[in-house]
Write a structure and sequence with these properties.
Length: 79
């Protein structure tokens, strides 16, 4: 099954969503670490033409956040 980005951005019990400049941050909720790690792997595999993903880690080097940047034009003007 393909990843549905719109549904992903609604959040779920395992993760929350925060709007960020030029993208969104998905963050894992306490007690749902395994589910969030599985989600992170799925999102990373699905990235490409529609969006890019940057994995963000905690002090123990575990992925606890994802930054998703859409492939559409950015809000800044690169020079």
């Amino acid at each position: 099954m393909a990843l549905d980005l719109e549904t992903l951005l609604e959040g779920a019990p395992a993760y929350g969503v925060v709007d960020a400049r030029d993208g969104v941050v998905l963050y894992g909720r306490p007690g749902h670490e395994a589910a969030f790690e599985a989600l992170a792997a799925e999102v990373l595999d699905a990235s490409g033409d529609d969006f890019e993903v940057i994995l963000l880690t905690d002090a123990a080097e575990r992925c606890d956040r994802l930054f998703l940047a859409p492939a559409e034009p950015r809000s800044f003007d690169p020079r």
